[in-house]
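Reminder: ligand-aware prediction takes two inputs, not one.
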Amino acid sequence: MAAIKCIGILTSGGDAPGMNAAIRAVTRSAIFSGFKVKGIYRGFKGLITDEIVEFKTQNVSNIIQLGGTILKTARCKEFETSEGRQLAFDVLRREEIDALVVIGGDGSLTGARIFATEFNLPIVGLPGTIDNDLYGTDTTIGYDTALNTIMECVDKIRDTATSHERLFFIEVMGRDAGFLALNGAIATGAEAAIIPEISTEVDQLEELIKSGFRKSKNSSIVLVAESPITGGALALSERVKNEYPQYDVRVSILGHLQRGGSPTAHDRILASRMGAAAVDALLEDQRNVMIGIANDEIVYVPFSKAIKNDKPINRDLLNTLRRLSI
Ligand code: F6P
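Here is what comes back for the chain with 6-O-phosphono-beta-D-fructofuranose:
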């Protein structure tokens, strides 16, 4: 394989706080090691349309604290076709980019994996998603910030729930994963979390009501993971209205505010370590791997394992939540 001279970076899929810290870390570590760096705007879309700018260290000054991504992001349908990927590859050659660092979630790393295999390209992925649903890393870039945002919102809703003695269903993001809902519930002292990972095993709403969760309280907060599997907060509130009309129920869907904001220290450090590790991985001739951090150690997780390898929830957390919400 020819030596790598120039590394391209892109962010793709849903943005996540800490992506800028990751862009900064990749850029600076790469320049430190003698590589040229090019920033690719708007994810794979910008790779196809050649929206590419050479990055110097100054291009990433003063961004570590910013939410969102200075490179912009997109979900690109064209890149899902082999014609689209061929166009992207032609642009890479023209721009003399020899390797890529792709920062994104499950869908983006799936695209990266196909692209790397098709064209025998060195590609390293960084897990950038608030959902925390990538296997092989303890947390993903953006997850901790989103969790803290959820905590602040739920604390505020708790005030009004208490005053009015209401049952609140608060819907949080996570796609098909319940990490935000479950840990958000523990962090806010919520009465329960309804998550997709156990939705097929038990009727979580029925279990909650049967547990007599109102014995010692007049108000309750239940975090619900958005997902067709849980049905979402609105569907659950309709069920309560029909099946348990004695409850005064309200719904709050937190939505995209969970994706914004300045990254926490945890996410900035995670993104900085992972960004530097991505460059180390390319120096070590790694390809088709996602950088993870497990037990505080950098790990290289093959794309095939990181993606769609259903990252399990820690069932002890469910137990803790149950015990603490009596
Ligand atoms: O994957 C991140 C995420 O925020 C999910 O939690 C959510 O389901 C999805 O993206 C929303 O995507 P969009 O912003 O494209 O509507």
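The mean pLDDT is 95. The chain has two domains: 6-142+263-308, 144-259. We will return to this case in the review session.
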